[in-house]
Every structure is written in C-alpha cells, then in structure tokens.
Amino acid sequence: MKQTLYHQITEKKQTGKKSFAVLIDPDKVNHTSIDQLVQLSVDAHVDYFFVGGSLVISNHLDECIKQIKVACNIPVLLFPGSPSQVSKYADALLYLSLISGRNPELLIGQHVVSAPFVKKSGLEIIPTGYMVIDGGAPTTVSYISNASPIPSDKNDIAMCTAMAGEMLGMKLVYMDAGSGAKRPITETMIALVSQHIEVPLIIGGGITDAEKAYLNCKAGADIIVVGNAIEKDASLIKELSDAIHSVPIKI
Predict the structure, then answer these.
(1) How far apart are CA 51 and CA 80, in angstroms?
(2) Could you tell me the residue range of the domain that residue 190 belongs to?
(3) What is the C-alpha separation between 251 and 102, in angstroms, rounded?
(4) End-to-end CA distance of the chain, in Å?
(5) Other beta carbons within 10 Å of 187
(6) Residue 105's closest CA among 96, 118, 94?
(7) In this structure, is residue 149 part of a structural domain?
(8) pLDDT the model gives residue 158
(9) 10 Å Cβ neighbour count for 164?
(10) Domain count along the chain
(11) Which element (helix H / strand E) includes 66?
C-alpha cells in the first residue's frame, strides 16, 4: 500500500526528523529558474516543494508543477491562495482554513465553492489550520483576507488557536509570518504551540538564514518553509537544508 504524504510527515514528526520545504510562487519563476531551483533542491536533499502564492496571476501553475515532477522525485504540495490554485499534477493539497482570522470566506466559504473540483482532482487532501502571525510588515494574505494577524507577542492566543484547530480536525498547523516578514515568528511562540498540539507544525515567513531555521526546529517546528529569501538568493537552499537536517533527533 502506497504511503500517503501525510503519513510520511507524521512519521517524521514521531521520530523527530525535521523537514525543509522550498516555496515556489508560479508568478515569480520561469522555465530556467525552476530548473535551477529543482537542481539545487535535489542536491541539498530538500524534502518538499510547496507551490502557490497569495495571488498567482499567471496561468502556468500546471506547467510549473509538471516541470518540477519531470525533473525530480521531491513531493509537490499545493499551498493555494485561492480555490483556483488547484492542479491535478501535484501530489497533495494543503486545504487551508484561516483559523487565525474571522473572515468566514476563508474559514469555510471558499472551501464550499471549491469542494467538488478539489474532490475530482484526485489529490491527497490535507486539512491545514493556517495561522497568520504579525511579521512587522503588511502582507498580501492579510490584505486579501481582510483579517488581522495574531500579534507576534501573544503566544497564548497562538497556542489556543492552534489547539482549537487541532480539535476541529486540522491535520497540520501552519504558522506564517508572511512573505518578506521583518520579524519571523519567535522561538517562544513556536515552542508553546508545539508543546500543546500533537499534529505536525509548519513554520514560514521571514526565515532568511540557516541559524534561524535551526533554532525554529529546535523550538518545535517540524517543517520549515522558505520562499522569499530563496527568490533573492537560491544558494541559500543548501545552507538551510543542512541546518534543518542537522537538528538532533530526540530519543
């Protein structure tokens, strides 16, 4: 029986293995840059590609994913900013519910509209509680969602939100400071949330160097996602991957 991606993710969490996901926004890559990113990621033993963006105004989502799949065996998970960002060529879909906001459209409304198409896609669907944390700069997701992020120093709110998401059936919790965040999520917040949930914890936004990625993993992150910093300097992929995979496994 073929292992699902979610099963692989949870197995890694149970054994303490940390994972690295390279985030690719189809609006910000071309055929040449995708090839470069894939080769660097293969060489660095990257665990996952997350593909998507807040807008995705280009029409080459399918082509982007197919190019990645032809070039490597790294799993591709959709990280959609809207119901239109669904491609049958991916391996799985992070079915995001914005649990940190109070906009019903992003909690359940858009899911109702997209459900028949998502079901038909044949993708592995992974319900994901998505939490936007204030990273010190306005983000596209906050603007589009018309929802305020959780303040960066309100660790208890983040903890309770993640706990509620898990109890509502979310299979992953994804805390994101947003693309180009000035302040990444603190290790204190990551540690508190990690201690109070059992599902895997994904952290992204504002991670620009290997040390920060390492410290986030030490604090309790299971998957580190980096996109913006890699767009600026793709050579960071190896440094980040080495740091994340060097975190000692807790026995």
Answers:
(1) 8
(2) 5-242
(3) 39
(4) 28
(5) 17
(6) 96
(7) yes
(8) 98
(9) 12
(10) 1
(11) helix 61-71
